[in-house]
Specification:
alpha+beta; 7 helices; globular; eight-stranded antiparallel beta barrel
């Protein structure tokens, strides 16, 4: 029973229907965004280190997932921690949820451990993302950095495919140039599959937050100077966003 409670406390939800009009061209990411008590969130970090990391590492060893991570809030809104895992298809992602939960249950954490996590991070939001494009998998691919910037976009659903086209055709070369310069380690552009109001997710990683923000500033300057029309069109589709800076605590 305690293993099942730990799975619930760590943000697992009932499996969602697989009735999404998605393809399998890119990997899928299941992300749980936790709202935590600032004075107690260190307990969540400790519990992930002691218990959750074992479940994810085991799931990687048996190839149920292809990656996982735990991020800590640096700057941004109410989310304080992020847990995520990756699989190559949507079916595999949903199957992985069961595999990870089974491994958590086998750890049989004491009830007080479950209670401590729930008290530290009593609320969460779940999202499923699919990678559309990015630096990883290309010739300039490298490992993700120690710091991350996530930009969560609110977009007009009727035109968001056009926003994707603008990112791939016009903005991707600007991101790639920053990777080649060393200001960024990786970048990615993801689409919403399930979750809340955010429809697109832009991720940038680098050696530190200063490097990431420098790269982002240069990209914005180039958009204004050379791609103003494309920038204006993108903004008309994805007109608002929320920024978060994260410290990458665990990642495989």
């Amino acid at each position: 029973m305690t293993g099942k409670l730990l799975a619930l406390a760590l943000g697992a939800i009932a499996l969602v229907p697989v009735a999404f009009a998605q393809d399998d061209e890119g990997p899928y990411v299941y992300s749980t965004y936790f709202v935590c008590d600032v004075e107690k969130q260190w307990l969540a970090d400790l519990l992930v280190e002691k218990y959750d990391s074992q479940a994810f590492k085991g799931a990687m060893e048996d190839k149920s997932i292809s990656g996982w991570g735990w991020l800590a809030h640096h700057t941004g809104g109410q989310w304080r921690r992020v847990s995520y895992y990756v699989a190559p298809t949507l079916d595999a992602l949903l199957d992985a949820q069961q595999a990870v939960d089974a491994r958590r249950e086998a750890l049989d954490a004491p009830p007080e451990i479950v209670s401590a996590f729930g008290e530290a991070c009593p609320a969460h939001d779940d999202y499923i993302w699919q990678l559309i494009t990015g630096s990883q998998g290309l010739e300039l691919a490298r490992e993700r950095g120690d710091a991350s910037l996530s930009v969560y976009h609110v977009c007009n659903m009727a035109d968001e495919d056009r926003a994707d086209e603008l990112v791939e055709s016009t903005f991707a070369p600007l991101y790639d140039a920053q990777v080649k310069k060393g200001n960024l380690d990786t970048w990615g552009w993801m689409q919403h599959v399930a979750g809340g109001k955010y429809r697109r997710l832009e991720t940038l990683t680098g050696k530190d937050h200063k490097s990431i923000l420098k790269a982002r500033g240069e990209i914005i300057e180039q958009m204004i100077d050379k791609h103003e029309a494309a920038g204006d069109e993108f903004t008309s589709i994805c007109g608002s966003h929320s920024d978060y800076l994260w410290d990458i605590v665990h990642e495989s």
